[in-house]
Design goal:
This protein has about 400 residues and is of the alpha/beta class. The chain has 3 domains: about 15-55 and about 285-390, 4-hydroxy-3-methylbut-2-enyl diphosphate reductase, catalytic domain (Cobalt-precorrin-4 Transmethylase, domain 1); about 60-145, Rossmann fold; about 150-280, 3-Layer(aba) Sandwich (Cobalt-precorrin-4 Transmethylase, domain 1). The chain has helices at about 15-25, 25-35, 55-70, 85-95, 130-135, 150-160, 175-185, 200-210, 215-220, 230-235, 250-265, 270-275, 285-295, 315-325, 375-390; strands at about 5, 40, 45-50, 75-80, 100, 120, 140-145, 165-170, 195, 240-245, 275-280, 305, 330, 345, 355, 365-370. The radius of gyration is 23 Å and the shape is globular.
Length: about 400
């Protein structure tokens, strides 16, 4: 049996529309939109960022998953892993009988559990070149929901690799999207990649470009974040810069400037065009949400609540961005509040949740709100309702 491949859904948008509406709609969010993104509840004023929540790519991926269940009601259906980084959306898909080949804890049947004729949904992050080859070899039906912004990054990395440039990727090396992007280099003779997480790691790379250094120490530091056999003495002379689409835009631009300057100082202006390539591959939805947070913060809310999965890259960057200016709480959902006045949240840069007492000060307050691109509206509405209830106000 050959592999069937679908990338544009099944034309069942109207059929699954009521299910999506029932699962993810929020009348509170609609009220916020209709009232200029501002809503009063007792002595609280809620301000919602003008760009928030599900982006087009996430909507498309979730819709395709619902269509897939409708198209193949009697087939075994798997996701390779989380379709997006939101626990509630992934739980809803499990409830529809969609299995996960790879669980967050490393469990799951793996690709070896896929039989000919089974249906496998590829997530919005994409999958690696090697994973795609393995799945094609299983004779299964593939439904590809990879986001168009991710595909755009892949095109650029393909160009870098075909032209003999090392792909330096600003991202998190263990993130599904970055793993998939880095794997693109394996299709080209001599293709290679290096992932830098932040400005600190970029500075290490730039210092090596300028002055060289301890090759073994460099290899040890980036052991999990570079292609096999990566040699900084050989592979940092020609660089094409790309991004995980959900990184903080300002940081990506800083890293781009740092690497360009390092190559310029090492090789001179005359060689720069032959040694450096860069394209802005931050997703427009990510950028829009970051810009909207900056705009919201300019109105001086007393605190910010950022809603979304703790493993959602774009959500954590929204929390970090807001936290530079105003007290910010990153929560997954309304269950993070308790009736004793406490809140469970994950501080920016932390690995674990913490609990903070008396997080909602007495008196009139303005609460800023935003949500990552993988957060459905119903979870935003539940948070607004729960915060209002802490002050004895009802939002029905």
């Amino acid at each position: 049996m050959g592999t069937e491949y679908y990338q544009r859904g099944f034309g069942l948008k109207e059929a699954v529309g009521p299910d999506l509406q029932a699962d993810y709609h929020s009348h509170i969010v609609e009220r916020l939109r209709a009232s200029g993104y501002s809503l009063k509840a007792g002595d609280l004023t809620f301000l919602l960022a003008r760009e928030f929540g599900f982006c087009y790519g996430v909507e498309r991926a979730v819709e395709y998953a619902y269509e897939t269940r409708r198209q193949f009601p009697d087939r075994t259906i798997y996701l390779t892993g989380e379709i997006i980084h939101n626990p509630h959306v992934n739980l809803r898909l499990r409830e529809q009988g969609i299995g996960f080949l790879r669980e967050a804890d490393g469990g799951g049947p793996g690709f070896g559990g896929v039989r000919p004729g089974d249906v496998v949904i590829l997530p919005a992050f994409g999958v690696t070149v090697q994973e795609m080859e393995a799945l094609r070899g299983r004779g299964c039906i593939l439904v590809d929901t990879t986001c168009g912004s991710v595909l755009n990054v892949w095109k650029n990395v393909d160009r870098f690799s075909a032209g003999g440039f090392t792909a330096v990727i600003h991202g998190k090396y263990a993130h599904e999207e970055t793993r998939a992007t880095a794997s693109r280099t394996s299709q080209y003779p001599g293709g290679r990649y290096l992932v830098v997480r932040n400005l600190e790691e970029a500075a290490v790379v730039c210092d090596y470009i300028r002055r060289g250094g301890d090759r073994l120490a460099f290899a040890e530091r980036f052991a999990s974040a570079c292609s096999p056999g990566f040699d900084p003495d050989l592979h940092l002379g020609r660089i094409g810069l790309a991004n995980q689409t959900t990184m903080l835009s300002s940081e990506s631009l800083n890293i781009q400037g740092m690497i360009r300057t390092a190559l310029l100082e090492r090789y001179g202006e005359a060689e720069l065009d032959q040694r450096f390539r860069a394209f802005d591959t931050i997703c427009s939805a990510t950028q829009d949400r970051q810009d909207a947070v900056k705009e919201l913060i300019a109105s001086r809310p007393d605190l910010m609540v950022v809603i979304g999965g703790y493993n959602s890259s774009n959500t954590t960057h929204l929390a970090a961005l807001a936290g530079r200016t105003v007290t910010t709480y990153h929560i997954e959902d309304a269950a993070c509040f308790d009736d004793r006045g406490g809140i469970r949240h994950r501080p920016s840069g932390a690995e674990e949740e913490v609990r903070t007492e008396a997080w909602l000060p007495a008196g009139p307050l303005t609460v800023g709100l935003t949500a990552g691109a993988s957060t459905p509206n119903n979870k935003i509405g539940e948070v607004v309702s729960a915060i209002a209830a802490l002050r004895g106000a009802r939002l029905d």
